[in-house]
What we know:
Blueprint lengths: L1 E9 L4 H9 L4 E6 L6 E7 L2 H7 L10 E8 L6 H8 L4
Antiparallel strand pairs: 1-3, 1-4, 2-3
Amino acid sequence: MITAIVMIKADVNRIPEVAEAIAEIDGVSEVYSVTGGVDLIAMVRVRRHEDLAEVIPGRVNKVPGVLSSDTHISFRAYSKHDLESAFAIGW
């Protein structure tokens, strides 16, 4: 599974509607309203790298109210469980 973190700037007057529309897109697992330099963060999970083009520029960026986006593709996921296993000393 390929995970992309998409940081989205949206029309401030339409953030709830934009978030809901993005959350309905196949391949988008979550959408967060956040503080900072962006308005929304969408988690995109797809099977193939090529599917990212369909989901992000093909659908997410075309949602009315999306002004711009910045996509980060993850190489590896680290969960609390994974980190505890990596640093455990065999107890």
